TrEMBL record:
Residues 271-509 form the Radical SAM core domain. This is TIGR03960 family B12-binding radical SAM protein. InterPro entries: CHP03960_rSAM (IPR023862), Elp3/MiaA/NifB-like_rSAM (IPR006638), Radical_SAM_N2 (IPR045784), rSAM (IPR007197), rSAM_horseshoe (IPR023404), rSAM_sf (IPR058240).
Amino acid sequence: MPGESLFNALEPLLERVNKPIQYVGGELNSTVKDWHVGGHGQTGEELTTRWALMYPDAYEVGVPNQGVMILYEVLNERDDALAERTYAVWPDMEAQLREAGLPQFTVDGHRSVRDFDLFGLSFSTELGYTNMLTALDLAGIALHSADRTDDDPIVVAGGHAAFNPEPIASFIDAAIVGDGEQAVLTVTDIVGEWKAQGRPGGRREVLLRLARTGGVYVPAFYDVSYLPDGRIKRVAPSSDAHGVPWRVAKHTVMDLDAWPYPKQPLVPLAESVHERMSVEIFRGCTRGCRFCQAGMITRPVRERSITGIGEMVERGLAATGFEEVGLLSLSSADHSEIADITKGLADRYEGTQTGLSLPSTRVDAFNIDLANELTRNGRRSGLTFAPEGGSERIRKVINKMVSEEDLINTVAAAYGAGWRQVKLYFMCGLPTETDEDVLQIAELAKRVIETGRQVSGRRDIRCTVSIGGFVPKPHTPFQWASQLGVEETDARLLKLREAIRSDKRYGSSIGFRYHDGQPGIVEGLLSRGDRRVGKVIEAVWRDGGRFDGWSEHFSYDRWMRCAAEALADTPVDLAWYTTRERGESEVLPWDHLDSGLDKDWLWEDWQEALDETEVDDCRWTPCFDCGVCPQMGTEIEIGPTGKTLLPLTVLGSGRQELLEHQH
């Protein structure tokens, strides 16, 4: 029977695998709804729209993911819909499932993923693509959308990587670009209506209905033609796909206070990467860092109000029992009322062991008053800052307007106020970067240690330098840039490591963490690839590729071998996708997906980067005409609201007052 629980068959397998608890489900605030919800005099079969939601990574990484958690709750609030979660199974469980003839299953109702109407995958990184193929294969769903029948779920991709879904175009049926809250409800309405009508026209008809909204991309309805040299000539709607738009627009949720999710955050059974409750305090960023895809594709800035944040924290703590609250955004200290938010929350939870954290803090938005409020009720851990570039010159190129003096003044204040540990995050391989730009990171780290010793009068000052490889991303000014090769990246990082270690005065006080260039090149292939890259992904998966975001499972040699074989009969190769600079007139694989950003504006910003010209934040200056607000019918929404938080506490009498306010 469709929707039947497989748990009795799964249970004997659990003692044979590592971390069996990740497959059990039953977390606090999880939901298992009846398979036939919302009868209304008809059979629930026609009226229930069922989603299987997947974060294509291990449970411990996927379960705290805010995007999946929000969609899970938004869908389950509907009487005519249900949503369950599934995660990538580890290779030991994959082997057990194949041996037992059991499918990819949800952790909520332990139902087969193939029984659902829709299979939604949220990709925050492209390195999860092979895990998607494992899940499809285990579920008994044909890998290629062209081979699926009316009995298969509609496979929908979302998340940041969905802004260029072309490398996985043959594996997915549709992609949703942008914010998912309203989008999944629209899709639910369309699929539900089609089911209630008796599924007229089958799979193709419902996909046409989705595509004609202009907000759902269905790759099968678009034809791609190529020039002899391998570049794309044109992407156009298929001649038989009537009513399908030339460009598909991203979704933008305005008024975050109207979407206070998750209201009941999930509490993982097994240890996860984030043991805290999180509240998104604003969405979007207009700082204009040229490398940052997240900042570009999530414009405009939309702040949650101080009272809206307070209500979400209060409700979430009561629902979970967590003792730490993460205030999430791309740059949380940029919220126009961040000082009032942190002071209000610290006052509210004084004496309750409830700690606050800002996972992302800009050097120029940090101050000690803010830091002291964050640590008033919690522990004083290390501080993390992201200058991104080692030299003043390269920071102008990437538009990270932070001077060396800004950084030194900030760390001086922190060390002087009692912090002992600072972590600095940089990138290697940025456009126009030289060895000297990267070696400046060592000099900066030494200055940080020396400053810390001077202001604190102590020798136990620590600084950790963490380096990530730069990967050019779609919908950014650097989408045309060449990527630094593996050998050049590794050579540059080796010089930096030697520069740090060679100075005996500071070397032992500076920690050095970095990723070699290999995973970055693969990510570059997947992030700027076109439909031809799908063959590479499938070849890697068939060769055993799994969990490519995990260093212990990632195989660079496998990716190189499979890329060479899969692209052998094309005029392009791995280097063509990664280390090649693009020209202004080239049709990019994602040009038909509209992030709101004007391509001419992005190109102008790319030229300004090469000229080392900085651009201000449009929150506080006149519009730079990037295109988002007028084109998307949106606008920047920021405070201050002038409101303050009521001094409620989870231990006090404020609970009833909050409940009355909500109703």
